[in-house]
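The passage that follows is intended for readers who have already worked through the single-chain material. We present the inputs for a multi-component assembly, then the predicted structure in tokenized form, and finally a short commentary. You are encouraged to pause after the input and sketch how you expect the pieces to fit together before reading on.
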Amino acid sequence: MTTPSEDDVRDALSRVVDPEAGVNIVDLGLVYGIEVSPSGVQVQMTMTSAACPMAEMIVDNVYAELAAVLPANLSADVELVWDPPWTPDRMSEVARTLFGWQRSG
Amino acid sequence: MSDAPVPGAAAAHTPRRPALERLPLLLLGFIALFVGTAAGLARLAWPMPDVASGAAAWHGPLMICGFFGVVISLERAVALGRGWAYAAPLFAGLGTAALLHGGMAWAPLGYLAGSIVLLLATLAVLRRQREGFVVVLAAAAACWTIGTALWAGGAAVHEVVAWWLAFLVLTIAGERLELSRFMPPSPLALRTFTVIVAVLGLALLPSLAPGRPAAVWGLHAFGAALLALAGWLLRHDIARRTVRQRGLTRYIAVCLLSGYGWLALGAAIVAVSGLQPGTATYDAALHALLLGFVFSMVFGHAPIIFPAVLRVAVPYHPVFYAPLALLQASLALRLAGDAVGALAVTRWGALGSALALLAFVVVTATAVLTSSSARPRRRAR
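Having made your guess, compare it with the prediction:
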């Protein structure tokens, strides 16, 4: 395996789905940043709710998807942040359409 | 960036493993579920083992404080990721142990302590995320504390049950308000939600002085607020959209939408009849709200809460719909019996609902034990 590009990492993360919404974490706008360096991959992400116990499971799933695309010598580091807070503006067009947003809204 | 811990960070280097240390706390909740359900059947004169028939008077506290209280405070502790928050399900579980062992002496204090820790844990979440929905969750926990404090102080279960209903309904409403942000409600809709919750809370205040006429009128207003809340949730919940998806996502949505139907029905009964203990409307309202609404919610979320709490996979299977269908059908039977005054029909409906709960536990446990991999199941888009 070669070092993945940022897009490869984003594709991997888009295989992690929030089962309640039925939408992946990239389209929900939960992924804040992806940094690929020679030593490994850093992901910064958030959750919509700090009261939801699913955070741990979703972070686990992110690690599992990263492990599938990273060569063995690269490490993965996922940081869960609450600042800045998630807002619906971060949702992709795909996710907005799914939840019935008006096109102009 | 944030003082929040990073759940799952250790998974970078260690394989995912079940969080079995949380299992005993969950089991305390399920003991209350089993004994509490059997105690409910004993009240309807189904022959039950001594441990259940002896607890017949504690059916409500076992289900609400012993089961829901433990499960909700356990998942809040997992979300917060702080050790002290696990004292909430532990205290509440000890309350159940005390109730089954010696009756009223210590049990309310265990539940009261659990409710206070849940409130503190929710306030800690609020410090991390200052959002309206967390305020609703904190108000819900406060309702559990107030109702349990009144009960510990000598009030009867039927005098505090509205507080306990508010605990469960507001907990669910808070979680759904949060998820509604995927199809954001308008500012007007959000103000409407705030007014509904405020009326719901104010309507409970007269019940602090039970026996006064105001307490009776308060309960009618409480029912009306619940009905308005059901309408708001039906209108704004993402389940309206996600029910068009497939698999687990659709199943969760079906659980939610059927639950809202029961919430509306139970709320309407409370709005019209209040909560008069010993009447058919009391039985109908409480079980529409608790079995129909709250348990539908539990059925829907077990496949994501179990993986979150125990770190075991609960792969979706269409058989999940079977316990849900039995729950709906048996509850409809029970309420039909209540409506026409046929106790025999109500009894069979209650037995059907107990079997639905049992089937739910069996189906969920089977899904966990037969899942081929310790890794969580993910569905590609």
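Commentary: The CA atoms of residues 94 and 110 of chain B lie 6 Å apart. Residues 280-310 of chain B form the longest helix (31 residues). How closely did your sketch match?
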